[in-house]
């Protein structure tokens, strides 16, 4: 049975769309506290917004403080109704100095991405 012209067209469309979908990794678009900003000592949450949905069970951050110490953080979860936004509770008061956030995520298309940014506390 010959494929109809319409069916053939949709197959070509699917084939041409697949590579671009596979390349859609989760890139960090926004973060709170913002990269290179000055946050308050009361900051108790890191919020990271990505370009696509992420899997919280396979995503997380490491927060490193001014004396290169690891700052305790809770498990990452998704913002309600937004699978592109990862929320990480900070379990310690932040002393003044520079902080580095090293993040890693697995996006809903199962690709891994990672990166880092810094902020400081007055
Ligand atoms: Cu991807």
How would the blueprint of this fold be written?
Elements: H1 5-22, E1 28-32, E2 38-39, E3 45-50, E4 60-64, E5 70-71, E6 77-79, E7 82-89, E8 97-106, E9 112-121
Parallel strand pairs: 2-9
Antiparallel strand pairs: 1-3, 3-7, 4-5, 4-8, 6-7, 8-9
CATH topology: Immunoglobulin-like
The major beta sheet can be summarized as: 5 strands, mixed
Shape: elongated
What is the average per-residue confidence, as pLDDT, rounded to a whole number?
88
- Specify the structural class: mainly beta
CATH architecture term: Sandwich
Helix content: 10-25%
Evaluate the radius of gyration: 19 Å
List ligands, each type once.
Answer: copper (II) ion
**How many domain regions?**
1
Number of strands: 9
Low-confidence stretches: none
CATH class: Mainly Beta
Binned strand content: 35-45%
Strand order of the largest sheet: 2-9-8-4-5
What is the multimeric organization of the chains shown? Answer: single chain
Order of helices and strands: HEEEEEEEEE
Number of helices: 1
Amino- and carboxy-terminal Cα gap: 72 Å
Keywords: Copper, Metal-binding, Periplasm, Signal
Protein name: Copper resistance protein C
GO molecular function, one term: copper ion binding
Family: Belongs to the CopC family.
